[in-house]
């Protein structure tokens, strides 16, 4: 596989990866933007980030087509087996992961329902759903699966968890009031992935939507008495508007924990502090642990 990067100073602007005979495709996000992604024996992609103009440079490099410790086996149904050398995954975790990646909803539900015969619903989520979603998220970060697949895995998990975890389950009634929104822009896929993962873990989340101004989000958060506010961004100008959101909340005398995520915050890991957020999640699968830490601080 060949890789081409266009640079502006120390900031990468464009990144191209090429392999012949692309079979499957999708869209994923990386630390440098969104990628049109193909997996299997082929990959073609590009990353785009918006930065200040500067000297443009190009870098050409080659890299292995797939990590050596990872193997994906395919048949006419798509991915049907995942093996990770050196990892001691039990049969149930392997089956659940394969069912998710194969988008086999009935099989996913069956695995979790069978698991509840020997453990509590929350334990099923903590020992099966979350670890598998974390691993799938790691594979997306490595470029082994598309962002759209990661999103679908979260949605399927959410549907299955809803069946084993009633709305009245204690985990959902004792949590703080949480909402998620996209500030200014209308790129909602990242928000939907985070929403699905959190729902899969038993959290109730209010979805405020996309393309909202700082004032609109502040007003809605005040009305709904939100305690933890998740903000997803794709563009740098949207990320910078988090500072306006914090000021809008402060002007109303409202103290809400703001947790941010998205490409701009991965570019600059200190940006979340500069805009007045309380925490950031580097990737969607980290949202659970970040929220749990925020809950501990609020207790």
UniProtKB/TrEMBL annotation:
One Gene Ontology CC term in the entry: cytosol
InterPro entries assigned to the protein according to its UniProt record, in alphabetical order: Cbl-bd_cap, Cobalamin-bd, Cobalamin-bd_sf, Met_Synthase/Corrinoid, Meth_synthase_dom
Domain of life: Bacteria
B12-binding domain sequence ranges: 174-299
Leader sequence segment: none
Keywords: Cobalt, Metal-binding
GO molecular function per UniProt: cobalamin binding; metal ion binding; methionine synthase activity
BP terms from Gene Ontology: homocysteine metabolic process; tetrahydrofolate metabolic process
PANTHER family: METHIONINE SYNTHASE (PTHR45833)
UniProt-recorded name of the protein: Methylmalonyl-CoA mutase C-terminal domain-containing protein
């Amino acid at each position: 596989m060949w890789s081409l990067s266009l640079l502006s100073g120390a900031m990468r602007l464009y990144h191209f990866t090429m392999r012949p005979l692309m079979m499957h495709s999708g869209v994923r996000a990386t630390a440098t933007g969104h990628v049109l992604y193909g997996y299997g024996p082929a990959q073609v992609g590009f990353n785009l980030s918006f930065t200040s103009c500067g000297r443009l440079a190009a870098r050409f490099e080659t890299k292995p087509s797939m990590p050596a410790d990872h193997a994906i086996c395919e048949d006419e149904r798509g991915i049907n087996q995942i093996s990770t050398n050196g990892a001691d995954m039990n049969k149930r975790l392997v089956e659940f992961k394969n069912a998710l990646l194969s988008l086999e909803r009935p099989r996913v539900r069956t695995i979790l329902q069978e698991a509840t015969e020997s453990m509590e619903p929350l334990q099923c989520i903590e020992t099966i759903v979350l670890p598998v979603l974390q691993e799938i998220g790691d594979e997306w970060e490595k470029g082994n699966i598309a962002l759209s697949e990661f999103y679908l895995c979260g949605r399927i998990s959410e549907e299955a968890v809803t069946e084993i975890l009633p709305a009245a389950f204690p985990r959902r009634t004792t949590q703080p009031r949480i909402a998620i929104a996209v500030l200014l822009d209308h790129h909602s896929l990242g928000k939907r992935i985070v929403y699905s993962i959190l729902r899969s873990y038993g959290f109730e989340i209010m979805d405020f939507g996309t393309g909202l101004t700082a004032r609109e989000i502040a007003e809605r958060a005040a009305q709904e008495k939100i305690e933890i506010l998740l903000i997803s961004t794709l563009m740098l100008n949207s990320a910078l508007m988090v500072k306006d959101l914090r000021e809008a909340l402060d002007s109303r005398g409202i103290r809400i924990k703001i947790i941010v995520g998205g490409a701009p915050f991965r570019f600059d890991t200190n940006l979340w502090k500069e805009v007045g957020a309380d925490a950031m999640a580097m990737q969607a699968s980290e949202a659970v642990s970040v929220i749990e830490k925020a809950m501990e601080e609020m207790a």
